[in-house]
Amino acid sequence: MTTAPAPSAPAALRGHIVTFRGNPFLMPPQDALVDEPDGLVIIAGGRITHAGAYDATIAHLPPGTTVTDYRGCLISAGFVDTHVHYPQLPMIAAYGEQLLEWLERYTFPTESRFGDEAYATTIARKFLGELLRCGTTTAAVYCTVHPQSVDAFFGESTRLGTLMVAGKVLMDRNAPDYLRDTAQSGYDDSRRLIERWHGRNRQHYAVTPRFAPTSTPEQLELAAALLKGDDTLFMQTHLAENRAEVAWVTELFPDSRSYLDVYDRAGLVRPRSVMGHGIHIDEHDMCRCHESGCALAHCPTSNLFLGSGAFRLFDAMDARRPVRTGLGTDVGGGTSLSHLQTMNEAYKIAQMTGKRLHPVQAFWLATQGGAQALHLDDRIGTVAAGMDADLCILDPNATPLQALRAQMCDSTADVLFTLMMLGDDRSIRATWVGGRLAHDRDSGGTTGM
Length: 449
Ligand code: GUN
Ligand code: ZN
Hints:
Helix content: 25-40%
Number of strands: 17
Radius of gyration: 21 Å
Structural class: alpha/beta
Mean pLDDT: 97
Largest sheet: 9 strands, parallel
Distance between the termini: 18 Å
Bound molecules: guanine, zinc ion
């Protein structure tokens, strides 16, 4: 089995620290922002030991520690992608269909190859390399129905030392023969994978019924049985993404009050459950998400690309019953692994629904909000002492156009806004994982790739 990297050496990064002290949907965005224009982050044993103003923090630098100079760039927590499919990387940008036809025509044939562990390892390696190039250090990831696809993914993540959440897709009906498990084989395979990977190094297991139409009620119940007695396990699935899909679920589960209720009756609506999309849900379902602690993953590039609809982000974040919400790229339904691009499209969807997504809110969703959605905010999502040293370094001057626009910026919020509207993987100067440099744009790539 792949081994994790050796403990990282002490390190320190100097630059403009941007992080959060609260939820900017529930307080004025400027009050939620921690903004340290000349900051220092000191790292030891894979964790942040100190973070603050350079002048006040330099006294804590252990003798002999090299300070990497990122002045001119922002130091942010690494991005958290709360919903993505690694096996769909090769079929990103597949033309012409909406969800159900897109699954049949492109997705299922592409996923059929992941019974081959060598192929799965190749794609997992490329996928993780791309995530790091985009500044994303944690993701909730769907593998395929094949247990080998999970071994390949966690093996590569272990090698890189990334904190990942992932699981085997469960699918015992309404899918091609070559991609179906059974309720029992899905349970048995998942149990073995949980024993092999969950809590090992930085890997976390998510029980992963693909969505209600491809699981029998028996499979959903066995998925809940896998979770029983272990609050640290995750659950991920899709919820109310597309109108034709919702109509199909109504036909398949006539006794359920709503799509969410299908999962709720099975015992799958709980803390550390992450529902992809949740576009076509009602107030009752929003309240149920709020009280249960389950999360929604807002996937704007996918929702636009597949023509699924407009997620009501500000409804989800309603202060009377806020729902844990993060950003998801949903590649291959999504068109980019970059959370900067994802924020860009989230801003435009909010505009279409008459709302204004403040850049501080967008960056919070991409970092601390995503970490809260996964109930991992005690480890990741914030630049502060005690947190894991998973960081991304953002360059507001990455291209000539961005450098031109940056001259107009008169606030940190505006710098963040230009990054989210104009930025992409070129804006990621570097990515640090567990206190180790994992991607360095200017020295040509991702270490260990
Ligand atoms: N619903 C069920 N499976 C999928 C998938 O792979 N991608 C998206 N976007 N929605 C789904
Ligand atoms: Zn998805």
